[in-house]
Amino acid sequence: MYTKTGNSAYSDISLESQVTGATPHQLIVLLYDGAINAMRRAEIYFQSGNIARRGEMISRAINIIDNGLRAGLDHEKGGKIATELESLYEYVSRTLLEANLTQSGEKLPHLISLMSGMSETWQSIAPQQKQVKHG
């Protein structure tokens, strides 16, 4: 009846709960985390020679970047920053695709570093939650 293992199902429920209760800012953090995680896993699969899983993880990272991060850019409000982010995301996606096609994971640490830096920057500008005073 269920096709997922317990840990995988738990992870899906945990992620779904995070997404459901997330602010738009937190959703971007989740997208960055997902892309970075997929790239790290692809790096492991490059090293172990697991071509199928490597391709799956690279595809997952590209999908998150293109259909999550890039698709969410607001060029009207974001102006030059949105345009520069678009270029960065396009570079990362293209380089991931090239890595898979050339079967070379040597650029993955650089891409992971770029996206980790973007994630840290995004997290540092998080809107502050207003404190509710009790009493």
UniProtKB/TrEMBL annotation:
Q: Which InterPro entries does this one have? A: FliS (IPR003713), FliS_sf (IPR036584)
The UniProt entry, under Pfam families, shows: FliS (PF02561)
- SUPFAM superfamilies linked: Flagellar export chaperone FliS
The answer to whether keyword Chaperone applies is yes
Q: Does the keyword Chaperone apply?
A: yes
Question: Where is this protein localized, as stated in its record?
Answer: Cytoplasm, Cytosol
Q: Which CDD domains match?
A: FliS (cd16098)
Q: Which UniProt keywords apply?
A: Bacterial flagellum biogenesis, Cell projection, Chaperone, Cilium, Cytoplasm, Flagellum
> Which family does the record assign?
Belongs to the FliS family.
Tell me the protein's name.
Answer: Flagellar secretion chaperone FliS
